[in-house]
Amino acid sequence: MTYGPSAGQLVRPPEHHHDEPHVPVFVGARRDELDTIMSRYPTKMAALLPALWMVQDTHGWVSEGAVEEVAQVLDLTAAYVKGVLSFYTMYHQHPVGRHFVQVCTTTPCNVCGAEDVVHAFLEHTGCGELGLTSSDGRFTVIEVECLGACGFATPVMINNEFIESVTPERVARIVAEHD
To answer: Has residue 167 been placed in a domain?
Structure first.
């Protein structure tokens, strides 16, 4: 459940993403790109992490269909690919918002107000709860254990953008900049 941005009520984002057929990633230029990556490694298996990144870059997450495609292209089992996929928290196993917000909430950041930053993001994005996507599909907010910037609390990552020293007062502007 998430809070709608204007109605202030709980709404469930559409779940249709899981039911849509998988659109192959490794065709044409993307297949050439993967072949170039694979040529740098002694085995196809060694290209698994970059292949998963390519899928996530294309679709925003790694679906079951994508797991099957990666397994086939790299001559691996789907179970092996799924095992690697589920080990790393950097890969999304379900649809997420266009802007994936990670807020560090480890002890040094918590002492500096990380929980207030989290609440501000949940409010200003309309997500309502951690891990859920806003009803407009723009944002997903999660807590993470450490972004490695304890001296610049509270650090936040939005997609691949690193933002230091975030305070609750800065959140509305940060969200507006990611429209």
So the answer is: yes
